């Protein structure tokens, strides 16, 4: 599906811009603070730095926490860096533990300490439980706002117990059943509670099939569990099966979005969770590294061409055709690499089927190599009225497309085994290989023939 | 975050492979049919064609519908193509309407007709309501399994009404309040129902702030609403405000995943929702078109080089250095293009801030152009002991990086305006531009100087 526009946000942005320009400051402020925090976060992320700054200053203090919580990491850090510990403590007061933990993890350690000190004992204890786990694990994703019940109660007692609450935590679709040692026993979905005879007990009606999530499970695995089981929330336990909290789908959606984003941005050498409207200097600085890295590989390819100066001097047509061989290798290799990186991110590629994928890609490389080598051979022969150059470029194209297929498939599997992110490193290594092999095979064969 | 492994799925796959190889067919069958449908779908998607076929044959007929429902489009079509209308009707009987609609939309029209004819009147009427809307709109995403109540009831009556149900539909987090004409009035969250005094009325406790989703809203906009408002489900209405059904977060998660996937696969010229383990011939066929398209652009670049044969003959070093200029332009342009495509997919880029982005990218292009032009100038001058060639490549690099920045930013905005998918077409056009401009500027300046 094509990228489509978002009329609503654009309308909001346009209306805000218009209001700002016509100077009705008070209207804009009221409009802005009437929007849901997610909408304001989206507006901030869709704004240029100057406009963003003006908008943020208009946000009421009461709304800052919720909005900060919805922002991407980069922008969040940006706004947080202007606050002191007391302000952070104040604006995060009413957020979920996992969200506060996320925010605290982005602050300098000393500020985090101060924020924790500013909290009451109970809040701090709960929060430290979440902070104990890395933020890309189930423990780092969880909230501690669970409603727990005991198995021996009747549903009628449970209903009366619920009515003693002011409100139930957001995304509560189940009550968590624990034993006297706080160990997870099962779930009582609200869907079940509401249709069951109130005189039944929790034990009779609860669902004990659910496997709770261990606190150290990586967040992408948690996301896949949610996707496959269509969960709205799920309990998190420690090694002893003791209930620590629960994960809710809204936080999982963020993980899914970030994971999917990771492959796209990393393959272009961009930081993940990037700020689309980052200012020019910061952007230039970040991109410079990637360009420098690619410049090195470009010089490697150039020095390969340099070896064949003599041959190119004799047959200048080689200089004309050589980029074709290198570029087709790069394109074919990138396709294979993307399929592998994507499959690995989706947890589809294992050791056993990795070998099958390399073979499949080799097959694809050979088939497309034969097809396009033939086309290139005919086109080049006709162009330069020289059947020899056609044969040479065909052979080089075949060699490079098969190399590209093998490298595109084997490289990410290898990189992953040595714990290097294939999405980030794969592209640079791959195009170096396809450039070098493309130039060496084409110019090398030509040297054998013409030299 | 780096792509991590999925121990659980891999263990399952490995165990299944082992069991299959040691011949305990019955065990495998029992194991497979004991797994949740999402897990089986993931196993099928992570399997090579042969193994996939064996697994599918072991799936019990009762489970086929749920598993088909969780599969990606390509695999789903594959398995459905072996079934006749009666089978499809049978396995989809207990699925949600939106899921059945998705499946029917992938079948030939005649089969869809037959499946609909095989259904009872009520099911057919409900399904036709969903089929009426394109599958990438809110209407196509919705289920019709809503529980509706009237505003004048007391909560006590509502609770008794719910208890008359066998079970509540999955992902029911709210009851939908409608008036006598079935027009949407508000939502009564279960969270509210459960903590409120049963003698209160629905009217007193319901939430009327919720804006229902119009049936023709594009699915990516629906997804953004869910993300920003942390919804679990949301009501869908027609133009008259009449309730049609509701959308649930599980279906929205699929939209989010697919949209994020779209940019990644399209930029590499791959079909979205692709089958990682598609067989060799089908894969080769699909990739061939993309390679052919890129071959044309490679020949365009080659014919540009061809114009400068005379100059290259005089100074062979030009042939050595020219790929550096083209490749750096391609890299820089791809970074810009990726930022734009991603920002557009996330609904952050509008007409007003598009101009700002073009300017920002131009600034980045100039800064990085100056930096790397200097580095390249020094490196080339030292290498070929010729300060002139250093000056020439520096000027060409500067021109190409600024062109790349402008093209990478302006092109997607332009393509979108003429309704061409920037993720798909952007890369091909961009690299053509950076190749041509790279070769023309470098070889052209060299011809002026050396010619």
From TrEMBL, chains A, B:
<keyword id="KW-0472">Membrane</keyword>
<protein>
    <recommendedName>
        <fullName>Magnesium transporter MgtE</fullName>
    </recommendedName>
</protein>
<dbReference type="InterPro" id="IPR038076">
    <property type="entry name" value="MgtE_N_sf"/>
</dbReference>
<dbReference type="GO" id="GO:0015095">
    <property type="term" value="F:magnesium ion transmembrane transporter activity"/>
</dbReference>
<dbReference type="Pfam" id="PF01769">
    <property type="entry name" value="MgtE"/>
</dbReference>
<feature type="transmembrane region" description="Helical">
    <location>
        <begin position="362"/>
        <end position="383"/>
    </location>
</feature>
<feature type="transmembrane region" description="Helical">
    <location>
        <begin position="427"/>
        <end position="450"/>
    </location>
</feature>
<keyword id="KW-1003">Cell membrane</keyword>
<dbReference type="InterPro" id="IPR006668">
    <property type="entry name" value="Mg_transptr_MgtE_intracell_dom"/>
</dbReference>
<keyword id="KW-0479">Metal-binding</keyword>
<dbReference type="InterPro" id="IPR036739">
    <property type="entry name" value="SLC41_membr_dom_sf"/>
</dbReference>
<dbReference type="GO" id="GO:0005886">
    <property type="term" value="C:plasma membrane"/>
</dbReference>
<keyword id="KW-1133">Transmembrane helix</keyword>
<dbReference type="InterPro" id="IPR046342">
    <property type="entry name" value="CBS_dom_sf"/>
</dbReference>
<feature type="transmembrane region" description="Helical">
    <location>
        <begin position="315"/>
        <end position="341"/>
    </location>
</feature>
<dbReference type="GO" id="GO:0046872">
    <property type="term" value="F:metal ion binding"/>
</dbReference>
<dbReference type="InterPro" id="IPR000644">
    <property type="entry name" value="CBS_dom"/>
</dbReference>
<feature type="transmembrane region" description="Helical">
    <location>
        <begin position="389"/>
        <end position="415"/>
    </location>
</feature>
<comment type="subunit">
    <text>Homodimer.</text>
</comment>
<keyword id="KW-0812">Transmembrane</keyword>
<keyword id="KW-0813">Transport</keyword>
<dbReference type="InterPro" id="IPR006667">
    <property type="entry name" value="SLC41_membr_dom"/>
</dbReference>
<dbReference type="Pfam" id="PF00571">
    <property type="entry name" value="CBS"/>
</dbReference>
<feature type="transmembrane region" description="Helical">
    <location>
        <begin position="288"/>
        <end position="309"/>
    </location>
</feature>
<comment type="similarity">
    <text>Belongs to the SLC41A transporter family.</text>
</comment>
<keyword id="KW-0129">CBS domain</keyword>
<comment type="function">
    <text>Acts as a magnesium transporter.</text>
</comment>
<feature type="domain" description="CBS">
    <location>
        <begin position="206"/>
        <end position="264"/>
    </location>
</feature>
<dbReference type="Pfam" id="PF03448">
    <property type="entry name" value="MgtE_N"/>
</dbReference>
<dbReference type="InterPro" id="IPR006669">
    <property type="entry name" value="MgtE_transporter"/>
</dbReference>
<keyword id="KW-0460">Magnesium</keyword>
